[in-house]
Automatic annotation (TrEMBL):
Keyword Metal-binding belongs to the record: yes
Keyword Hydrolase applies: yes
Gene Ontology molecular function terms on file: hydrolase activity, acting on carbon-nitrogen (but not peptide) bonds, in linear amides; hydrolase activity, acting on ester bonds; metal ion binding
Domain of life: Bacteria
SUPFAM superfamilies named in the record: Zn-dependent exopeptidases (SSF53187)
Keywords recorded for this protein, A-Z: Hydrolase, Metal-binding, Zinc
PANTHER family hit by this protein: BLL3975 PROTEIN, SUCCINYLGLUTAMATE DESUCCINYLASE_ASPARTOACYLASE FAMILY PROTEIN
Official protein name in the record: Deacylase
Length: 346
């Protein structure tokens, strides 16, 4: 719950204030100071403390745009609680347009970190101490890795009732019950008694409008669910479907790919997903679905090696055709949504 005075980076922030801060981290080789940018918005009335973070992987840019639009959204007016917005956690990665830290470590495998460890460990420790430890809830914004794309989806510990309620409130069609990974921000947050959602959508180094709009709307939906907004979000009810499990379908040959399916498509067992050929146009292999399901992630580069992960297919108890139809309907709704709701930049 909201503290009387919140202190971040040595700065006291009283209820009712909104403040932009810069948390210093290690300098560049050039002696240039590097800082993690933060915006803190506090209502006068006590309530939950929530963080929204982006660019833990420095090449995952959709989350930065989601937070930019949130800050400029007329809907973001708090009646209770505190919101901590962190558009760039891995500032070094953003500067280099890289997933990784300068020491080649994945920041999302270095939490909770150590103030005396590697550069990645030190950044992780600073973020936990300055942000996460204050928070009751968190939303961590991600995209797929380079040359891949993800359907908008929530990954979380759906066995926890409150976390599941948040995931359902977010309002995207697909939820995945996801185990905690060692060293991840999600694991460190849970160990700090912070309930957290991981939003996955879009591609690295690209803005995807639908993914961004779904993210803006989803964060506002969660804040509304937590009774933090002055204006409650009125939204068309989306019934998220929870995937029982998922698996990657891999390339059975090396070559050039012709995709037959796209994100959100419903596929049946044995159905062709892609054709692999050589540079002369000869067919070398066909990638088929192993089970019926919905494509929630896929490789986007047309050059593949045998064994490459090509299609991420989620499996559900419900009718996959119904799920695919809802995904398409949500896509159309977001494209047609009013600017006020999704916070599109001018």
């Amino acid at each position: 719950m909201t503290q009387e005075v919140l202190q971040i980076a040595g700065v006291d922030i009283a209820p009712g204030r909104s403040l932009r801060l810069a948390i210093p981290v290690a300098k560049l080789y050039t002696d240039t100071q590097v800082s993690i940018p933060i915006q803190v918005i506090r209502a006068k009335k006590p309530g939950p403390v929530v963080f929204v973070s982006a660019a833990v992987h420095g090449d995952e840019l959709n989350g930065i745009e989601i937070i930019r639009r949130l800050i400029n959204s007329k809907r973001l007016s708090l009646k209770a609680g505190t919101l901590i917005l962190v558009p760039m956690v891995n500032v070094y990665g953003v500067l280099n347009q890289s997933r990784y830290m300068p020491d080649r470590r994945d920041l999302n495998r270095c939490f909770p970190g150590s103030e005396k460890g590697s550069l990645a460990a030190r950044v992780a420790s600073i973020f936990i101490e300055e942000v996460v430890r204050h928070c009751d809830y968190g939303i961590d914004l991600h995209t797929a890795a380079i040359h891949r794309a993800n359907l908008p989806q929530i990954r979380a510990n759906l066995k926890d009732a409150q976390t599941r309620e948040m995931a359902e409130a977010f309002g995207v069609s697909v939820m995945m019950n996801s185990d905690l990974r060692d060293g991840s921000l999600r694991q460190a947050a849970v160990e700090s008694d912070t309930r957290i959602l991981l939003y996955e959508a879009g591609q690295a180094l690209r803005f995807d409008e639908v993914s961004i709009r779904a993210g803006v709307k989803g964060v506002l939906n969660v804040l509304s669910h937590l009774n933090m907004l002055k204006r409650r979000m009125t939204r068309k009810k989306v019934t998220p479907f929870m995937a029982n499990n998922s698996a990657w379908v891999r390339a059975n040959a090396s070559g050039i790919v012709t995709l037959l399916k796209e994100l959100g498509d419903q596929v049946s067992k044995g159905e062709p997903l892609a054709i692999i050929g050589n540079s002369f146009g000869d067919t070398l292999g066909t990638i088929n679905a192993h089970r019926s399901g919905v494509i929630v992630g896929m490789q986007k580069i047309p050059l593949v090696q045998e064994g490459d992960a090509m299609f991420h297919i989620a499996y559900f108890s419900e009718d996959e055709e119904v799920i695919a139809e809802q995904i398409e309907a949500m896509h159309d709704e977001l494209i047609q949504a009013e600017t006020e709701v999704i916070g599109a930049m001018p």
